Model the fold of this input.
Amino acid sequence: MLLESQIAIVTGAASGMGAATARLLTEAGATVLGADISRTPGIALVGDVSNPKFCDAAVAKAVALHGRLDILVNAAGVIVRADAPATDDDAWYRQMRVNVDGTFFMCRAAIRQMRQQGSGAIVNFGSIWGSAGGKGHVAYATAKGAVHNLTRSLALDHAREGIRVNAVCPGEVDTPMLRGAGRAVPLTDAQLADMADRVVPNGRLAQPDEIARVVVFLCTDAASYMTGALVPVDGGWSAG
Ligand SMILES: NC(=O)c1ccc[n+]([C@@H]2O[C@H](COP(=O)([O-])OP(=O)(O)OC[C@H]3O[C@@H](n4cnc5c(N)ncnc54)[C@H](O)[C@@H]3O)[C@@H](O)[C@H]2O)c1
Done:
């Protein structure tokens, strides 16, 4: 129970890696408030992270209920799968609003609280495509690059206030986003296995828990000297 009596917010907690992270943080002893735009059982904070008022209210609710906020995990995200000519204005802005603005607004609200406490841990969801180009995913890779540098900049600004800010950078993870989001037809199991074989050095997709376990580690004091790190969890992809 490494996180006993810790208060956490996890965005994107209704699905995929956010859901896995919320579950594993709870198993580690934390009290977790899930936040998601999807009205799903177990989600305490229903709303849109691209709305700064929602983000401020989410942190305010955690503080009203529990008196503090120790952990923020930003897993909410969307993906636009298109090259530049095929990316219309709405898709571009939606990609930036959710993944970049949403991550920033949640971090800002959390840090305003955490600096008063003199402690806190934030984990953002980057991507292998935040540090490399994403072919056919220009808006998404641009947004993830912004999340990476947001993470590093926040880490520098708040390193002496007891606040650590890191990012996990997953490779190909078996979630509803990978299977279906932004695709005309969801990928079949055979197509996913083929993709993993072609793209991932260890030849398989990650399961959400394999990423969430690293997120939990980054939230604990076991990672006390880590801040501003972009941690690849990618089956070897970024080694190539
Ligand atoms: N799946 C992958 O292979 C992969 C790889 C690298 C990075 N990532 C990133 O990991 C994170 C989690 O992805 P996932 O694969 O678990 O996705 P997912 O689609 O399974 O879950 C994303 C969740 O975010 C929520 N969400 C979307 N827009 C929102 C908004 N505006 N406000 C609040 N909630 C919102 C969705 O409702 C959903 O529950 C994302 O940031 C994604 O970009 C995913």
